[in-house]
Amino acid sequence: MVRRMVADRPVVIFSRSTCCMSHTIKTLISGFGANPTVYELDQIQNGQQVERELHKMGYKPSVPVVFIGQQLIGGPNQVMTLQVKNQLAPLLIRAGAIWI
Fold first, then answer.
1. Sheet holding 71-74, edge to edge
2. pLDDT tier for residue 28 given thresholds of 50, 70 and 90
3. What is the dihedral of CA 10, 81, 78, 14, to 10 degrees?
4. Structure pTM?
5. For labeling, which of 46, 55, 60, 94 is most exposed (least CB within 10 Å)?
6. Which helix (H) or strand (E) holds 38?
7. Taking 80 as the threshold, does the pLDDT of residue 37 lie above it?
8. Distance between CA 95 and CA 35 in Å, rounded?
9. Which residues cross the membrane (predicted)?
């Protein structure tokens, strides 16, 4: 199910509307000019099922989880590491999420 949800989308963030780290990651990626597809797991009908799949993929807690160019990037630590290394923007460009 998760793979279907990220197909053909440059940036996908699995989030919870009440999670401060989810908000931080959404703000960071949007700050580059990207328009990520965001699935708020506490607000979508199959959110619990998606969350179980993310747990099976090894993400505990299960949000935020970021896919860029249909590639699993990971959680906030992985995204922030890419940002600190100046690798996040090039990844977004390659995925077609931003144009610079």
1. 37-40, 11-15, 65-68, 71-74
2. very high
3. -50
4. 0.93
5. 60
6. strand 37-40
7. yes
8. 12
9. none
